[in-house]
Amino acid sequence: MTANRKMTLRVILTQADIRKVILNTRPSTLEDLISKLKESLGLQYNFSLQYQDPEFNNELCNLTDTEELPEKPTVKVLPVLELVPVSPDEVFSDTSTADTEILSHSSQEQKEKWPEFFDIPTFSVDVQYRLRQADLLFMSEGTHLKVSKELKHEILERLAESMYSYTAYPSPAQFKSVAAALISKHPCLQEQGSTTRCCGWKNSLKHKMANYRTKRRQSGCLDVAVNAGKRGRHSAEGQPANKRIKKAKKGEINYLPNFPDGFDQAALEGACKDLVDEMQKRSPNGPLVKQKMDQTFALRRKEVVESEPAISTMVKRWPALFTEDQVCSRKRR
Q1: Residues spanned by CATH 3.10.20.90 within the chain?
Q2: Higher pLDDT residue, 126 or 179?
Q3: Pair 160, 205: CB distance under 8 Å
Q4: 189 near 125, Cβ under 8 Å?
């Protein structure tokens, strides 16, 4: 057969995904065939090929040479599992998602704006390996992973930690975007019988995020501690449950950060007094004002969220907040 003739193939990716591929030229080598199939099918992984051999009643045989292929062959794609060596130090230093360890964040952590496309974080070495194996099996055989309770806990805990870096109170649309991103990156986790393939993951994320907020609240994180006692039997006397849950509005970040490391309320109150004194000078020291304002940001947010003071009170207590430099600085945050 000449190499410049078109070639039509029946390509088996999984039992549920069988495609017809037409190549403009017939590849002369196995490597060339694999390269053209990768390009035509958009495959991002390495694989080997088997073909249905007419000499053995179309039973599958490993393909080693394109000359073995009939005129219109049927080939099967077999993903190749590539194992990456891992040193013992990397295995034993693996970041566990145990309840106590997920809370070991700096009190100066800063939240970021929710991304347009949520990036699924890297899981532990063990979880990553298991998911990779399951993804390859799903691509080759269409087999869904049966998720164990322990594996699901590891996945949800890591996702909750990642979501918390953006907001403590994700919206329904944000939960949905995380669930969709999860099954997109790890298709073996798709749910059979679900229209979106991820409804169960979305609901599980909601419950896990609530549990994660409880742990953060117990560790003293202000952005969730401010809402302690607002539900059911913990509500203040005369206050109905679920009233005025305080959380960031759309687009808000750093809603209620913790105090900087090494500073308590008394120390920040002292910095606040220094600011008031500095602003009474004819020519306040700009760099000092900026440094003190940044330092007292968490105290200021605590007052605004918890006490909701009048504008007149804020002008008197934080005069630097209403200067042109600070107004522009807050807009850039």
Answers
A1: 7-79
A2: 179
A3: yes
A4: no
Asked if 18 contacts 10 with a C-beta cutoff of 8 angstroms, the reply is yes
Average pLDDT over residues 28-32: 92
Between residues 320 and 234, the one the model is more confident about:
320
Mean pLDDT over the full length of the chain: 79
DSSP codes joined into one string, 14-78: ETTEEEEEEESS--SSHHHHHHHHHHHHT--S-EEEEEEEGGGTTEEEE---GGG--SS-EEEEE
- In this prediction the pTM is 0.49
- Residue pair 153/205 in contact (Cβ under 8 Å)? The answer is no
Q: What architecture does CATH give domain 7-79? A: Roll (3.10)
- In angstroms, the CA 17 to CA 64 distance is 24
**Quick one: which of 193, 77, 61, 196 has its CA closest to 136?**
77
Nearest to 284 by CA among 333, 321, 329: 321
Cross-sheet strand order for the sheet of 47-53: 17-23, 7-14, 74-79, 47-53, 59-62
Structure-derived torsion over alpha carbons of residues 250, 178, 204, 218, reported in degrees to the nearest 10: -50
* pLDDT at residue 111, as a whole number: 61
Within the chain, what is the greatest distance between any pair of CA atoms?
97
Q: How many CB atoms lie within 10 A of CB 64?
A: 11
What does the chain come to in residues?
A: 333
Amino acid residing at 28: S
